[in-house]
Prior knowledge:
By secondary structure, the protein is of the alpha/beta class. It contains 15 helices and 13 strands.
Amino acid sequence: MRSIRPSAGLANVKYEIRGDLARRAHEMERRGYDIIPLNIGNPGVFGFRTPETMRLAMIENLKASEAYSHQKGIFPAREAVVMQQQSRGVRGVSADEVFMGNGVSELIDLVLRALLSTDDEVLVPMPNYPLWTAAVNLNRGRAVHYPCHAANGFEPDPKEIEALITSRTRAIVVINPNNPTGAVYSRATLEAIARIAERHHLVVFSDEIYDQIVYDDAKFVPMATLVQNTLCATMSGLSKVYRACGYRVGWVSFSGDVESAREYLSALDKLSSLRLCSNVPGQWAVQTALGGYQSILELTRPGGRLYESRQAILNGVANSKYLQVHAPRGAIYAFIGVKDGVLPGFDDQRFAMDLLEHKHVLLAPGTSFNTPYKTHFRITLLPRAEVLADVFRRIEELLDSYGDGAEPVSRAAPDLKVVRNQS
Length: 423
């Protein structure tokens, strides 16, 4: 029998966060092992709840959610996004320039599909949330990665960005606060990127899904407040700040030089029409979310759950003989590396599989985020501090075995049940 071959367009597409490691973890769970899932920033798995007011807003409007909405989304949700942007100092935004989507993930695909022709280039940070690279490739473009060096706290160098621009470059992606590194870009860096985009007439795609998740003295600067003379697309949603991943509600708002982009926005409207509309019940939670009490601030300040989990990761790294990290200043991840020369030949994929098989912890290797080096891994801040302390004990045991040249020792399944219940 002839095999059914997949599309050739998938050849350069990868999403290892839910790849072979995740599938192996699922197999192990079916065999009775309890796995600590640190590969995805999924708050609900770790006991975080969506604010009650948002759930009530959905329930009270279920009767109004049975029909398709406008392809751009319901007006109260889009107007709430406009009001938030205006409160941040963004000028010239109206509900007509706001599109609701089934999470930012769907919108990443739509905004790129409406823009790109064959071999058009998009500047994407490296490391990056891998959907950006995948979506550029899926939509016939070419992702050109600009480096964000660990030595610079994972902030990009604007000069290195501009050196990569060619006649085929159409857009630049900014992820701030950053996934996977936790970097929060300075105003000076963002202003420099904005000027580069304006000089070269590039569309700015600003992924700001973690906009209110910052720690200590870090300051989030909305990119749309800095971009005036080219098009800026600001993308955010309910998944992270409001702990509502399963609602699948995101939005993109356009500002800056909107008039020159009318043809592009019309194409995006056409694509939005093809999928009819995004999840209507979840859209009713947007106005309540953006206009209500911002409970995320309780979690990110000292004593808050995310803050204390972040501290547990920093403590775990500080106590390790092998690891180093730039303290995440935002988002819900730490991008941890192995110290130079400590473990020669360290391979992030092998480490991640060994950690899963022998210590029953699932995390994401650094190469999942399109890095050319194999010395890092990403871990989420979402578990409680005591769970993360135990995770770092397991990591250190595994790394000790690498140093000794011994085979890693597996944990028995019963040891894991207590940890699982602490989420």
